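Please check this:
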Amino acid sequence: MRAIILLVLLLTAGAASAQFLPEPKGGQTVYVVRPGDTLWNITERFFDNPLLWPRLWELNAFIDNPRLIYPGDVIALKWRPNVPVVKIEPQMKERGIVTPPPPPPVYFYSRGGSEGFISPDQWEHMGSVISSEPPKILLGEGDEVYVNVGAGDDVVKGDEFTVFRTGKEVYHPLSGKKVGYKVAILGELEIDDVVAKHMSSAKITRSFREITRGARIRPVETFVKEVVMRKSEEGGLGVVVETLNNTELQGGEDIFYIDMGKDRNIVPGNLLSVYTSPRKAYDPDRNKMVTVPGAYIGSAIALSVNEHTATCVVMKSSRQIEKGDLVSIEVDI
């Protein structure tokens, strides 16, 4: 009797995600990298969504580092499975392959760990950086330092610590009430040698910004690098209470903090729209003050959420984002 042929798709976990890329524009299936290209702008060009670049990376397994692609590289834009043929006994019924639904979109934050947050109190620390070898004012990745924790603190070689600084008090730009303290994550270090009851040598393994003597340390924290975009159940309105660098922000991957958190059912992955605050203007024809509505600035996504605040990253903006701007939590993605 004639054998029934069943096509069996052998997919890796990465390919399973990569196959859910949309159809590329113009039906083009490959692309040759040109000078200045990145996976971000290639996915924006062919799929109208730069946030799909991790899937394009998975589709092209020869790319070791997504930041390093070179002119002349041939990038596949469409998933093509290997299709082996397997013979099945005639008594067996043919079973169709059920295509799973596409995974939800994912936002990857390339500087994960550096975003900081607003803490309601001074963030508890275990010790501090007290010196370096050789002595330096500004410290960074690879530098050798001394910290004031050791055998008496149950520290052993190989222990990892988050290096941080608790900054200024943050006050609400509209109500004037105290919101908390801005915590800046400076980097990470690893204990090389425990030299005394309360002293160890260590090496800075990651540095997001300059580290100085007196920077505080605590057991290493896990910070968000990737969040799944989620719809909000309720929506809501909030206010930008602080920015990462105390300056006006513009462009992708800048950080700001809002006065909404778990108490407002915000979760990592919620999308936000950002607007300028409404302002007063004088109407000379009617001889009175009128309210000018706020203007749309751009979009952002919640990276991490505390009880009353959330840390957000700018996805796209047309102008500066600053303290006092309004945010609206979107109910669709």
